[in-house]
Amino acid sequence: MNHVEHIQNNKVYLDVRWQILRLIREYFWSENFVEVETPLLLKLPGQEPYLSPMRLQLHDENGTAYTGFLHTSPEYAMKKMLAAGYEKIFSLCKVFRDYESFGGTHNPEFTMIEWYRTNSDFYVIMDDVEGLFNFISNKLPSASKFLFERMHMRDAWQKFVGVNLNEYLTTEKMFALCEQKGYKPATGEAYEDLFYRVFLNEIEPKLETVILHHYPKQMAALAKMSETEIGYAERFEVYVGGLEIANAFGELTDAQEQLKRFQEEHKKRQELGKDVFDIDMEFIEAVGKMSASGGIALGVDRLVQLFASLQGAEQACQNIDSVLVLPASKLFN
């Protein structure tokens, strides 16, 4: 299929995409958010162990070469803006990740809506998610209203796995559970990897319309620890039909704790044989200047897939390629 044929064959899905991009902006403007732009080109990328930023080389007018990276998220720049005094901001932008699948549920270039609120927490961000989904539903024909179930991670494990997650919050206990279930974990495997052996097989496929909150502390990423749920972090993910749509935090505002986590992630990248990068100390400083905040990153392409499937199309929109004008599979294969 050539480029023009791909666009023609997927016009019904692409037309939904253009509507949703407009509606996303309308929703956040109606909530008095400011739309911001941040650099796509960075000197220092994120430290996430399982993400691979796209490396590139650029030159100044004198021919001096510099190594840069395309951002995997606008998060670092947006948090610097929060530290500088911005309060309610959103960014609708392209992000890039190397070593991603070409098609299915992934594309190396994809669109993300990321937003933050200061003087807030992750429960307010949950309200935003519900508000955004229902705003879009009310504006599009044939779209049903979304009723999200807010489910504690502990309750999900009890419901779908039949165990009390509180008893499996250590690497040793989770390793034993994986062995018991026949997942054949490797010696020295990290808690997060063990957790996902069970979660991805026994829980995620069953999450219909769920906001899954309070992840174990080992999986906090850039979230702060819960003050009321010992052993858990203020992190949630949004699932629809077993597909993860968004990832959110009650944001960490402790600069030293953030530095410690980055150092641990740096070590993890080394262990995985991935490229390692210097830590963005400007970001560490910004974290310490932030007030209590909540933030989230939501995959727009997957959101479009979801709504396109509800718009009277002949079949559900199963492949992310269908909602992209020219996906990587068409450009490079």
From TrEMBL:
Residues 245-272 form a coiled coil. GO terms for biological process: lysyl-tRNA aminoacylation. PROSITE patterns: AA_TRNA_LIGASE_II (PS50862). One of its GO terms (molecular function) is ATP binding. The keyword Nucleotide-binding applies. GO terms for cellular component: cytosol. Pfam families: tRNA-synt_2. This is EF-P lysine aminoacylase GenX. It comes from Candidatus Magasanikbacteria bacterium RIFCSPHIGHO2_02_FULL_41_13.
